[in-house]
Amino acid sequence: MTSTSSTQAQTGSVKAGTPASEFSHRLAQVAETVETFLVDRLGPEIGLGEIARPPRLMEAMRHAVLGGGKRLRPFLAIETARMLGGSEAAALAAGAGVELVHCYSLVHDDLPAMDDDDMRRGKPTVHKAYDEATAILVGDALQTLAFEIVADPTWQPDARIRADLVLGLARASGLGGMVGGQLLDLTAEGRFGAANMDVDDTLRMQAMKTGAILAFSVEAGAIVGGADAGQRAALLRYGLALGQAFQIADDILDREASPEAMGKATGKDKDAGKATLVDRLGLDGARAECDRLVGVCEDAVALWGEKARTLRDAARFTVARKT
Ligand code: IPE
Ligand code: IPE
Ligand code: MG
Ligand code: MG
Ligand code: MG
Questions:
Q1: What number does the ligand 2 atom closest to the CA of 105 have?
Q2: pLDDT class for 21, splitting at 50, 70, 90?
Q3: Burial profile 181-202: b = 16 or more Cβ within 10 angstroms, e = fewer
Q4: Which ligand lies nearest to the CA atom of residue 317 in the structure?
Q5: CATH top-level class of 4-320
Q6: Are 68 and 6 in contact (CB under 8 A)?
Q7: Which atom of ligand 1 is nearest to the CA of 70?
């Protein structure tokens, strides 16, 4: 499934605001731009400072990154920068960097030692298509490529902006962000001893494993767009609420959607003992929390009025999506 066709299929359920077809068209457009950028970065041409690109590693990286995914993270970076009048080229590079960290997180998340999944984005996971050692190295190489792109002056000449982006991406990705959240997610399964995560613990874990990178996607757009402190705070509120809603929706879809629609296994979280809001609050409680969080997102960007339409639509898409 190409990113364009999958995005169009995914967005039929956006209910209010921009007509679904318009939002779907914009998301598909951005996905195509991101795809072109990433195809170029993952080609056989040896990059500056590189010695060689081992074909097996490069092919496995292409398998992990190209031809799938909603590309929501770069979409948020680009649309936030656009709303603020920032450079779209710089936002694309920053968003592509975030997407690569996201792809690396998925490759490692699927490993037998983590969630042990065989399908991702409608294809075999990297360790299935290749092998575990290659999948570990794919994740490592995607992460460093992400930082290389974000730090590259080609797309962003201002060194202070690049440093801000690198710092933000590092913080969102590591110990106190995505990686730390993944550890807490596994802890909740009880594999390191008895664990009993209440609703607040679960929300903190979600904010880390998923929310931090989604919130940084928005923040990247804010940095590129030159947002002031007040605007940054409003956009952070939006990004954090969107991140929470995104993981709750993923956990609802794990219960309700088919593997075919999702392009990955479903119905696994409960048996694995994952801590989710669906488990803690029930499906209706989780849905109500999603609706509340969409309201928080809408309030957070109210100061931009009509200019924030796409960000409002993105929040609704996050909870209405079917994939
Ligand atoms: C899946 O993210 C992992 C979670 C954080 C829940 P996405 O649903 O954005 O995955 P892709 O990029 O569209 O495949
Ligand atoms: C993943 O959460 C969060 C990541 C940091 C990758 P899940 O484990 O629920 O994501 P899926 O359902 O495998 O995509
Ligand atoms: Mg996981
Ligand atoms: Mg998983
Ligand atoms: Mg999931």
A1: 6
A2: confident
A3: bbebbbbbeeeeeeeebeeebb
A4: 1
A5: mainly alpha
A6: yes
A7: 13
